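Apologies for my clumsy wording, but are you able to produce some protein sequence, whichever is easiest, and the tokens describing how it folds?
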Amino acid sequence: MALGRRFGLQGTSLCVLLLAVPQSWTAQAQQVAIPLPGAPAIATAPPATSDDLPDAPTPTDQAVRKAEAAQTAGTSHQQPSQQDQTNPAAAPSLADLGFTPQQMQSNAQMQARLNKRTHMLKIHQTLGLITTIPMVATLITGPQAKAKGRYGQPITEPTTANLDFHMALGSLTTGMYWTTAYYAIFAPKIPGVKPKGAIRLHRDLVWIHGPGMIITPLLGIAAYKQENAGEKVHGIASLHGPAAYVTVISYCTAIVAVSWPIHWKFWKK
């Protein structure tokens, strides 16, 4: 009896085992793909469900602001470099050169003074060049209006025409000289501007040819009266010639100091 029960239990266990093996083989076949001969291998992965995947991190407001700030900073750093590449030789502004906003503002009154001063000084320069013509001519005709001869010898008196012509040239020179000086004296002055270099020399020579243009005509009038009286020029009137030479030399030096090289077509730019 015992032997029969033993064989009966073993038979039952064997039947259960045989029934379970096909089911396990079927489950493994569904999970594992058996490659066919000549076909490429295909890797299979176990199916993943949404429950098995972790959730994506949700960005916070602070992280978003940091990202936007970093992007803005990167853009601002790139823009100057692009501008430097497109315009590498940009000229400095007036502020870069040290000018204040008050200095950069236009001053209509000052501009009007500058325009008037420029206009008057141009006329002064033009008339100054024209004045040299009768001035040099007066200097050349001077010896022809002078009596010749020494004491104890016959004196050759100048002709009336020579005297009148010399005096007319002297009067024209004097009139043009002071007209020229008018445009320099009454030109608007710019505060704080001091003459330098050639301009300073030009203005300093005024102290020579200015008084000379006063003394020379006065001595010329005295000499003219002595000539008309049949006398040889004497006394202080005899200094008329030397005073004229000093005046003409200083005047021409003043012109050369600011006008060299001289353009005779001074009416053209």
In short: Residues 117 and 209 are 23 Å apart (CA to CA).
